[in-house]
Amino acid sequence: MARQYFGTDGIRGRVGVTPITPEFVLRLGFAAGKVLTQSYHSATTRPRVVIGKDTRVSGYMLESALEAGLSAAGVDVLLVGPMPTPAVAYLTKALRLQAGIMISASHNPYPDNGIKFFSEQGTKLADGVEMAIEEELLKSFTCLESQYLGRVKRIDDAPGRYIEFCKSTFPSQLDLKGLKLVVDCAHGATYHVAPLVFHELGAEVITMGNQPNGLNINDGVGATDPHALQQKVLLEQADLGIALDGDGDRLIMVDQQGRIYDGDELLFAIVKDQLVRHVFAGGVVGTLMTNLAVENAFVQLGVPFYRAKVGDRYVLEALLERGWMYGGENSGHILCLDKHSTGDGIVSALQVLAALTYQNASLSQWLGKLTLYPQKLINVPTPQGFKLTEEAAVWTVVKEAEQDLAQQGRVLLRSSGTEPVIRVMVEGQDVDRVNHWADTIAKQLVA
Q1: DSSP per residue over 148-182, as a string?
Q2: CA distance 320 to 325
Q3: Other C-beta atoms within 10 Å of 369: how many?
Q4: Would the pLDDT of 252 be above 70?
Q5: What phi, psi does 246 have (nearest 5°)?
Q6: To 10 degrees, the CA torsion angle through 59, 380, 229, 432?
Q7: Does residue 218 have a pLDDT over 70?
Q8: pLDDT band at 179, cuts 50/70/90?
Q9: Is the pLDDT of residue 415 over 90?
Q10: Mean pLDDT calculated for residue range 350-370
Q11: Which residues of 227-367 form beta strands (DSSP E)?
């Protein structure tokens, strides 16, 4: 059966349009409750699921619908309010729950929202489990008898638990004293936890993007738009800027000169430090979007490198298959499986800061001669039912581009798993040729 609702990162869409409606999410909660807890056996207790959300105004509505659906399926619900996605993953595992659910559309603007699920191990659900939920959605919605309905409870100390967890991933023999950091929370789910993590480890923290109003998440701030952070770092003469996205699983950083560093570079900084300290084992997983310069740099260091499909769930799958610990995407998803079961922007930032502290170096010094190849990404909106594989004229242009770039670049076209767009990526050593072919292919897509 083909997927109808689940994409690469849960279920996502425009609020008020199926599947992001109260009626559908009610049914989704019931279906997920049945599937995620079918192996739960206890004569005295009900299965338990935690629900978190980011700061979108629609989160209130969707939280209530999920809560009702899960309760109807006989599942007890724990509510934590606005919390980062990786916090929900952490709490699911730490509290020995049967599942975790996050209401968020991550880096998307506020009119969108979505539902992400975590297994009892704090990892993204396997494809088979998502398919089972979709199959359950085809059945009629029912409700258990009153004595079997789930109850709902709020966990008031969830932020404190997560803050302590994040701090525990930073080496106990190090601290951040003497560092001046600007932390951009994207008006999202990290607004009340991220600044405290860095402050309690000793840094001087200047916070921005920490005034969510339900409508301003990711709006001109955060990992998807770090230019305001650039300006703030320069204005405050800070050592580093840390940009998180709306749900806290992405990380982008800015150095004291205002230069932006993406997930590829930050992952390299972490792994290079571990190699120098002789504590790294295995290899690194990137994606089809990982910059060629970074892949080449890992190879030069003798680190095995593997490209997974785009999406942190596929990076995770590849890591688990190989028994490796580190991987990520240039968008800022970084997985450090020796620290957490999922990508976590705060935890990733702490690993970069630990690397720089160990090496007594700035970010620019530590990355040295690593220079990314020019890369241009264009998102081309597509109508419903658009099939990229059937666009012969587009693939003719792609072939021309690949022949021109030869071994000094590459072209990647893919359908987004979270938005109705085709992502056109062209990469190479010559920036003019990269821009030319990216623009040419994008124009052909809308011709």
Answers
A1: G---EEE-TTHHHHHHHHHHHTS-TT---TT-EEE
A2: 8
A3: 6
A4: yes
A5: -55, -30
A6: 170
A7: yes
A8: very high
A9: no
A10: 96
A11: 240-244, 251-255, 260-261, 284-287, 305-308, 326-328, 334-336
- Residue-wise pLDDT for 91-119, tens only, equals 999 999 999 999 999 999 999 999 999 99
> If we measure between CA atoms, which residue out of 291, 232, 27, 246 comes closest to residue 135?
27
Asked if residues 129 and 3 have their Cβ atoms less than 8 Å apart, the reply is no
CA 159 to chain CA mean position, Å:
19
pTM, two decimal places: 0.92
Question: Of 58, 71, 106, 348, which one is the catalytic site residue?
Answer: 106
> What is 403-442 written as a DSSP string?
HHHGGGEEEEEEE-SSSSEEEEEEEES-HHHHHHHHHHHH
> Which stretches does DSSP call E strand in 90-224?
99-103, 112-118, 152-154, 180-184, 204-208
Q: How much is the pLDDT for 384? A: 79
Element (H, E) at 381: strand 375-381
Residue from 154, 147, 120 nearest 46 by CA: 147
Tell me which H or E stretch contains 48. Answer: strand 48-53
Name the DSSP class of 27. H
Rounded CA-CA distance 220/228 in Å is: 7
In the annotation, is 39 catalytic? no
Closest CA to 343 of 328, 363, 355: 328
Question: Of 247, 265, 143, nearest to 194 (Cα)?
Answer: 247
Coil, strand or helix at 204: strand
Report the alpha-carbon angle 83-89-94, nearest 5.
105
> CA-CA distance, 362 to 253, in Å (whole number)?
12
Residue with tokens 């975590």: 118
Average per-residue pLDDT for the chain? 95
The separation between the first and the last C-alpha atoms of the chain, rounded to the nearest angstrom, is: 33
Q: Residue type for 209, please?
A: G
> Parallel, antiparallel, or unpaired: how do β-strands 152-154 and 76-82 relate?
parallel
CB of 91 within 8 A of CB of 162? yes
Residue 427, strand partner residues: 375, 410
- Residue whose entry in the numeric block shows the structure tokens 């809308």: 446
Confidence of residue 1 (pLDDT cuts 50, 70, 90): low
- CB-based contacts of 368, cutoff 8 Å, min separation 6: none
3-class secondary structure, 305:
strand
The helix (run of H) or strand (run of E) holding residue 136 is helix 127-137
- Report the alpha-carbon angle 142-81-353, nearest 5: 130
**421-428/375-381 β-pairing:** antiparallel
Residue 74 in tokens: 């006989």
Q: Are 132 and 27 within 8 A, CB to CB?
A: no
Assess contact for 288 and 305: CB atoms under 8 A: no
